[in-house]
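# nightly structure sweep
# worker-07 picked up a monomer target from the shared queue
# config: single-sequence mode, recycle default, output format = structure tokens
# input follows
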Amino acid sequence: MIKIRLIFIILVSLVSVVCLTFFLNFQAPMNPELAKISDFRITQISGNGRIYIDNKSIDANNLSIASQVDMKQMVFNTDVYLRTDSNSAVEIYLGNTAFDISPGGYFQWQYGKGLIFYAGDISWEKKDKNDSPIISVLSPENKLNLSDSGRIKIKENIYDIWCYTGKMEITYAGSKYSLSSRQLFTTALSLRNSNPAITQVLGMPDNLDPLKRDIILSNNPDDSVVRFSWNSAKDTSQYIFRIYTSNLRENLIQEKFLGLNRYSLDLLQFEDERDFYWEVLPFNPLDQREGVASKMGHIKIVGNLIEKKNVSKPPTLSIKNLSVNGNMVYIDGEADPNSQLFINDQPVKIDMDSRFFITFRIPTLGLHKIIIKLISLNNVETIEERYVSIFEE
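# output follows
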């Protein structure tokens, strides 16, 4: 009886080994495209860290029907809708491509198919140039074969797509479009029975300074004043300066429209913050279009050896009146009397009552820009820009 049992156990073992060998050698391999597109993960949540999951609705304005989830415990092996609240941004990866999604972003992960974006401001960058992610905007039919880097801005049923670097293919309303570096694709015109527009945009400002800097506050009253600068972009002197407390751009603490390629700011006015991330975008005032964003600089306050009670703030500037008579321009206003005032780079006197006024002539017809700049003793600037039209000399 013992011998029979032993023989039975040996036979069962042999059959098990044969079956396992057959399974390992002959099982169907995973589709490599499916394996690549299934590599979806959330890598960073900033701000309040709130992200919601909702499998039933794509109403981006109704968070009451969604539930907050712990993304560390989330496994994305099924279709799911995801959204961030108005204070949180998120970084996700699809394959080796990183996406930064703004607060209020809303997107769908379709397991084995890809991503569909419904709302938000999304920037992407390939970490591997051989990566070839395909995503969709608003519907599965509107497909994007992504370039090396770029940006998508979705508002209601209109979206703009910037191709920063590389080349990309867009399928929209059944037609295919090709974009190369520094091109913008917009669907705004298609709502008026026109084809989507593809236009050239302004190039990326480079040589940011400081690109990365640690600051230790000491007895020098100016040690928290940072002087930002960058190379002038071609074909424009207009820029948008933005500074955040996160690399995901969810907390914009200052935005300035500048007519110069430099700006000074005392970071200690944001006394509760220690990390600052800044970028510059060239700006075309004629069509109100943003160009290719610069790289993002990072400044960190790593030590504080003093208690700075009087925080340096941008000097106060108020334009009370700006009028045009023929080709004569009149400006008056109020400004911090301890600062220096310049209008189109010409010094203007500020009286003891903080008032100033100036009259000057513009000799040519057309649209003209006036730059009003106030510089404090700590070299912190306040800049205002105005445009005037001259119709007669």
